[in-house]
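Subject: complex prediction, re-run

Hi both,

The earlier run crashed halfway through, so I resubmitted it with identical inputs.
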Amino acid sequence: MLERALAFEVAAAARPALPILPLEAKKLVFEAAGRRLIDGLDLLLRPGLLTVVMGPNGAGKSLLLRLLHGLLRPHAGSVLWAGRPADRAIGRRQAMVFQRPVLLRRSALGNLRHALAARGLAYSERTVRTRKMLEIAGLAPLARMPARRLSGGEQQRLALARALALEPEVLFLDEPAANLDPASTLAIEGLIQRAHDDGVKIVLVTHDFGQARRLADEIIFLHKGRVEEQAAAARFLTDPASAKAEAFLAGRIVL
Amino acid sequence: MQDFATAFGLAFGMIAAGDPALAEIVLLSLRVTLSAVAIACALGLPLGAGLGVLRFPGRGASILLLNASMGLPPVVIGLLIYLLLSGAGPLGVLGLLYTPTAMIIAQTVLVLPIVAALTRQTVEDLQGEYDEQLRSLGLGAWATVKTLLWDARYSLLTVALAGFGRAIAEVGAVLIVGGNINHVTRVMTTAIALETSKGDLALALALGLILITLAVAVNGVVMAMRQATARITYA
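This time it finished cleanly. Structure:
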């Protein structure tokens, strides 16, 4: 009986899960205080491309990430993962890093362990993954430090390491290098590039054109809660199709 | 009636000599109050955290009720527990009236709203900060409560100490349900009230000094813990 149950579990684990990409947003609407912050937004995100979301302040970049990740419910429209609405299982195949890292009042190690425990990983697997991830993120010597005593750059690297330790298939990053010095930014970008090379779908919000140039395969330009332009990075940065994107790239105010 | 200076002298003498009658009273006080605080924490921490995290109809009213019951007068709680435990009361068959158990029950009822209400506030504040991260991880309600209770652990220790301070200093509830019986239910506060009315100021003063020392010590621990907390985790 037990053997049969075990065999069943092994089979279930070996069975490849259904793909969750492409990720599609259809006629997405989100309102706050009577204002339409996301205004009938349509979007298609394919696997394999490192997607960077750009746009002026208030364009709805952070909101879009939260809607896609399921932290906010749209007032209208839908988010579809390979044609299906998100459920718990799909939620567990994504991760997100916030602009201001939310670190628990525990050690760096404790933060990773907590996240992995939340996803139901066994103790031995948690130990292996946390050690590996702290090593990759260059945080191994700081493993026992209280997370909130780390420097800004280290905290953001820890938040990113925590998200990557979950081995997500899709990773949402909301300005992960905002307010960081060039060295810390480079370390963060190295981790992002590495995850992308490992096949993680990256959706990154940034204001930093240099960062977009270094990382992006495609760029989504948001304006007033809509996708104004979605294009290959090189093309967008040199020759944007829309007038608004051109003004944005030139540093002019787009309203 | 002894004069003031003599009373003080005798009081210090009793404390220094470890007077057995004095020790018995102090130990019973600690036993009753620590038991009550432990039970109140076991119930109040999850209760308060649940109230802070969960959203359900009637939540606002529950919080209002809980906050209001922080200010329940100890004599009223004593009276209610007395009615429950007295021979004619619904729990009279248990024969608990005028026992330390009855005093623990009364003080638990006194401390539970304090622990639960302060925990609710602490946990809700922390959740405001953690909410997106925990939801991103896909944490359920119970796992969220556990995470928040653990991460608020230093603040919650001060919550428990606040409950301890309230219970150890209260006289009304333990007097009514305990009866201040010598060697059975006599605690520091009831003894002070009795000895003062009898005019035996030495014992009353000695107990008063110990009570104050305890209060200062508890506050000292709270302060030290807050500073350590700021240094270690909240920086």
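Strands of chain A lie at 23-32, 35-45, 51-54, 76-81, 84-85, 94-97, 170-174, 201-205, 218-223, 226-232.

- K.
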